[in-house]
Design goal:
By secondary structure, the protein is mostly helical. The protein has one domain. It is elongated and about 45 Å long.
Length: 202
């Protein structure tokens, strides 16, 4: 079932409405279903490298809006929508564990790792942010930086190196994102330690 969904998603890249679908897939990924927007973004950016940055913008906006929708679900309709969804995905235990130690600092870390590496799944983190009443402004700002940074970095690489870097990205995307996420998290922790009272721990 999931493989068929992935194959169908890949087929969208060749449609005239591919850019609309890219925004939709990015939105869905961040709010309620794991369907990586990179499945569409990579082939589309390779086919038209001159539009790679435009496609990155579409994916980033869709992803941030999807994150906002997930936040709303967690804040307003957790019992009606989020809880059944998390149970169906087998993510309720992970959700409860994260919620037990969620503060603004923890949420920034989760959003960075989720946005850049999909660990934990973005939809779980966005719903968690709403359910835990995390600062909405901080939530949106972190989504913009993390998701926008990911897609813009991919756009730059594909626009600069084209097909030559495609296989490298496909094989090592997780490692690249993990390194980038680690650097962002380290920078955030350093900032908090230097200019505030430290990091909120679980």
């Amino acid at each position: 079932m999931f493989q068929k969904t992935m194959d169908w998603t890949l087929s969208l890249a060749s449609r005239k409405s591919a850019e609309v679908w890219l925004g939709i897939v990015a939105f869905v990924e961040s709010s309620f279903f794991f369907l990586p927007a990179e499945l569409l973004f990579l082939p589309m950016a390779l086919a038209r490298p001159e539009r790679a940055y435009w496609l990155a913008l579409i994916a980033s906006v869709g992803s941030v809006l999807g994150g906002m929708a997930g936040y709303y679900i967690g804040a307003v309709a957790f019992n009606e929508l989020a809880a059944p969804l998390l149970v169906a995905m087998g993510k309720m235990n992970a959700f409860e564990q994260m919620k037990a130690c969620t503060g603004d600092d923890t949420m920034v870390t989760l959003l960075l790792t989720s946005s850049l590496t999909h660990i934990p799944p973005m939809k779980v983190v966005t719903i968690l942010a709403g359910a835990a009443n995390v600062s909405f402004a901080l939530f949106v700002a972190t989504c913009v930086v993390a998701r926008g940074g990911r897609f813009l970095a991919l756009a730059w690489a594909l626009n600069t190196y084209g097909e030559d870097i495609r296989h490298f990205i496909e094989k090592r995307l997780g490692l690249i994102a993990a390194i980038g996420g680690g650097l962002l998290i380290a920078a955030y922790i350093a900032y908090k330690l230097l200019f505030s009272h430290g990091i909120t721990a679980c």
